[in-house]
UniProtKB/TrEMBL annotation:
Family: Belongs to the complex I 23 kDa subunit family.
Pfam families xref list: Fer4_7 (PF12838)
Protein name: NADH-quinone oxidoreductase subunit I
PANTHER family: NADH DEHYDROGENASE [UBIQUINONE] IRON-SULFUR PROTEIN 8, MITOCHONDRIAL, NADH DEHYDROGENASE UBIQUINONE IRON-SULFUR PROTEIN 8, MITOCHONDRIAL
UniProt catalytic activity: a quinone + NADH + 5 H(+)(in) = a quinol + NAD(+) + 4 H(+)(out)
Recorded topology in the membrane: Peripheral membrane protein
UniProt-listed InterPro entries: 4Fe4S_Fe-S-bd (IPR017896), 4Fe4S_Fe_S_CS (IPR017900), NADH_quinone_OxRdtase_chainI (IPR010226)
Length: 188
């Protein structure tokens, strides 16, 4: 196989100092600035912009209606229609989590419970939201459909301890999810 050497093109003085690119960038910036002053900015109507340009006024206006269907937000645990935990503490989400943001401590279900056929449930379930990268792998790997990524993007706290969501908090933000749960299936 023959080796072909490609010679670099010679640059003139304007190209060496990026003069043409700087001038072109300046004119594009001025074009956008004039359009903003004339209230003709592209996308301003879609975001219901209240001022010049397409800047969203954040606390009053939110992205909720502009969120795409495929958006992955905060992970949360869900219960079924009868407020039973869907999670069986299989720990697959903990093992697959790339930044290791999930920590699960499995617990036993008492033998006198009517659903004692299920081996485990989580005693402790924590997700460190400062580490979570919202990849969705925990949702994909869950065999019981117990963890979902919601469209929630406003996750804040005053310190790091508030950003670690425990089991109670995860169930609060997750709510109920209706549908088949393998864990409670009588035929299983």
């Amino acid at each position: 196989m023959a080796v072909i050497k490609v010679k670099r093109p010679e640059l003139n003085a304007g190209e060496k100092f990026y003069l043409g690119a700087i001038v072109k960038g300046f004119f594009i910036t001025m074009k956008h600035a004039v359009a903003s002053l004339r209230n003709k900015t592209r996308g301003a109507k879609d975001m219901a912009s209240s001022g010049l340009g397409a800047t969203m006024q954040f606390p009053e206006q939110k992205w909720d209606e502009h969120m795409p269907e495929y958006y992955r937000g905060a992970p949360a645990l869900v219960t079924d229609e009868q407020d039973r935990e869907r999670c069986v503490s299989c720990q697959l989400c903990e093992f697959i989590c790339p930044p290791k943001a999930i920590a699960i401590t499995p617990g036993e279900i008492p033998s006198d419970d009517p659903w004692a056929k299920v081996e485990k449930r989580p005693k402790e379930f924590e997700i460190d939201m400062t580490r979570c990268i919202y990849c969705g792998m925990c949702e994909e790997v869950c065999p019981e459909q117990a963890i979902y990524l919601r469209k929630d993007y406003l996750i804040s706290g005053l310190n790091r301890a508030e950003m670690v969501h425990d089991k109670k908090r995860l169930y609060e933000i997750g709510g109920k999810r209706v549908g088949l749960v393998n864990k409670w299936n009588e035929l299983k």
